Amino acid sequence: MKSFLKAAMSHPTALAVFVAAAGLVIQFDVLPRSVRTVVALPLVFFAPGYMLVTAIYPEQYTGGYGDALLTGGWDQRDGDGLHPLERVVLSVGLSVAIVPLLGLVVWAAFGEFTPVLVLAGLVSVVGLLLPATVIRRYNLPPDRRLVTRPRTQVRRFGRWLPGSSTAETATNAFLVASVLLAAGAFTYGVALPADGETYSTAALLTNHSGELTADGYPTNFTAGEAESLTLQLTNSENAQTTYTVVETVERVRTRDSRIDVVERSELGREQVTLPRGSTERLEREVASDLTGDSLMLSYYVYKGEPPERPSRSTAYRDLHLWVTVEPA
Q1: What is the residue range of 46's domain?
Q2: Pick from 187, 165, 185, 167: nearest CA to 175
Q3: Sorted alphabetically, which keywords does the UniProt record give (predicted)?
Q4: How far is 234 from 274, CA to CA, in rounded Å?
Q5: pLDDT tens digits, residue range 236-258?
Q6: What SS3 state is found at 313?
Q7: Cα–Cα distance between 193 and 209 in angstroms, integer?
Q8: pLDDT, tens digit, 9 for 90 and up, residues 101-138
Q9: With 191 labelled, which of 143, 199, 280, 297 sits at a CA distance of 20 to 30 A?
Q10: Spatial distance between the Cα atoms of 42 and 92, rounded to a whole number of angstroms
């Protein structure tokens, strides 16, 4: 039992705990987006491949740590287990292969491809591989099990970086700088998206034979009698956002291609908070007390609190439907 606990309390278990914590951090927006992006990088590009490599090769590397692997090719490696460089390269390569395959599985199973489903799939893959790594480690003698000691790896890196010549040292330094630059550029590009990438959408829908569609709206109303409409909001702001919807019926006057509101009846205000990437449908029962022809049923969508008198110029999003309201 003690030997099994030693096999279980290891770096694969620590990695699985990190993956679970990273999944929660990414999903629930508890940190800024730039921090979530940095947390997501090892989750996507390292963790699943490393767990698979560790399940297949749980042995500690017993060979030397010279430059033969880098300069002489894979056939000159000595000792059992994987060289640390081999382990890292395979982990990244397998992670890059696993993520697209996981995306295909998600699409086949659910018919859609969303970050939440992919995130859940990555956490599940690591969680399913964890028992295999523990069992594989348990079946090895303790002195042959892979043990990750950060200080030892840092010392080995320090011995590798200064090469046997000035040219070799420059090459090693260039390799490290290139990797760091590529990782930094990727993180910067993902963490700071281009302007215009974040937005919200609003759509007015109506029910036809049990399906919501964006046509065939009711346009003839009777004062005091409700007609059903659905307002759909989608948050693509990359952050949780609070919206306020103001519903009005307006009598307008058109002059020189400009629409002026001459009379307004406000039907209601509703506030809703949406997590990033989510969609909410607000069921509306429209009953106007303002009567007449060519009235404008308007929905003004604001981020946060709206002004006292909403308008197209101040709204973040606005929707309009021309209606006729007959007296009761």
Answers
A1: 2-160
A2: 167
A3: Membrane, Transmembrane, Transmembrane helix
A4: 8
A5: 887 889 999 999 999 998 887 78
A6: coil
A7: 41
A8: 888 888 888 776 677 788 888 899 998 998 888 888 77
A9: 280
A10: 9
